């Protein structure tokens, strides 16, 4: 079983739609969680952290369910510019005070006119 | 100017050749990382370094070596390149002092093809 699993998509949605992605993780010791965005052939960039109480940043809402070990990302009022691959990322503390980021393979979103 | 730079951006080489990928950062971060990305496999950690005197293997270090020449520079070497090392390679940095989130910032990537 992969440590972080995502539906690869693609999710094809019309502009203005609401779309949600889920991600599950296998390590219950995971401590922090993120969504990164990656445009085609570009580097990943942090979209938002995911907090236990849920958090919102404009049109983006992230939720964490520790009991079920899943993370979600909701995008409202989709824009063409939201087209990208969204990476679910889980952070586990390791010996020595560092951390290990484990990346999901990403969910591809295509927003269409 | 970009905070994390990688050179070269693209490289085509032949099996058995030695290749070095370089990463430089102006963010002043202590921590640096090398990842590779393959279709369907996501990003996988090759090596990481928490400071100049610290080097650690990641999950796929076989066939690779690294050098942390300075706080700002972290190089990845393929001593004898093989075709299954064809991938997109990313360098990243992070600053643990900023808090527990330890956000990573990625360079633009190096596309390596081994023939």
Give me a quick take on this structure:
Chain A is mainly β and 113 residues long. Chain A has strands spanning 4-6, 11-14, 19-25, 32-38, 45-50, 55-57, 60-65, 70-75, 84-93, 99-103, 107-112.
Most strands sheet of chain A: 6 strands, mixed
Proportion in helices of chain B: under 10%
Q: Which shape of chain A, going by the Cα principal axes?
A: globular
Number of helices of chain B: 0
Strand/helix succession of chain A: EEEEEEEEEEE
User: What is the structural class of chain A?
Assistant: mainly beta
In sequence order, what are the helices and strands of chain B, one letter per element? EEEEEEEEEEE
Cα Rg of chain A: 14 Å
For the report, how would you describe the main beta sheet of chain B?
7 strands, mixed
The proportion of residues forming helix of chain A, as a percent range, comes to under 10%
What's the total number of strands of chain B? 11
- What gap, in angstroms, lies between the N and C termini of chain A? 37 Å
Q: Report the mean per-residue pLDDT of chain A as an integer.
A: 92
Average of per-residue pLDDT values of chain B: 92
Work out the helix count of chain A.
0
Give the terminus-to-terminus CA distance of chain B.
33 Å
Strand-residue proportion of chain A: over 45%
Assembly type:
heterodimer
């Amino acid at each position: 079983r992969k440590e972080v699993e995502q539906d690869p998509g693609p999710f094809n949605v019309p502009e203005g739609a609401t779309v949600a992605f889920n991600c599950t993780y296998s390590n219950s010791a995971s401590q922090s969680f993120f969504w990164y965005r990656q445009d085609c052939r570009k580097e990943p960039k942090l979209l938002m952290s995911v907090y236990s109480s849920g958090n919102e940043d404009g049109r983006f809402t992230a939720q964490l369910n520790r009991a079920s070990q899943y993370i979600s990302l909701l995008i409202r009022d989709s824009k063409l510019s939201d087209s990208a691959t969204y990476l679910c990322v889980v952070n586990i503390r390791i010996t020595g005070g560092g951390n290990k980021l484990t990346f999901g393979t990403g969910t591809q979103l295509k927003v269409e006119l | 100017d970009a905070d994390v730079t990688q050179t070269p951006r693209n490289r085509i080489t032949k099996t058995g050749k030695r290749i070095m990928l370089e990463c430089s950062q102006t963010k002043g971060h202590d921590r640096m990382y090398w990842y590779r990305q393959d279709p369907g496999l996501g990003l996988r950690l090759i090596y990481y370094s928490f400071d100049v005197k610290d080097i650690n293997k990641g999950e796929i270090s076989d066939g690779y070596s690294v050098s942390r020449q300075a706080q700002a520079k972290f190089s990845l070497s393929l001593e004898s390149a093989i075709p299954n090392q064809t991938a997109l390679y990313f360098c990243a940095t992070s600053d643990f002092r900023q808090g527990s989130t330890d956000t990573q910032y990625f360079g633009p990537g190096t596309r390596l093809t081994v023939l």
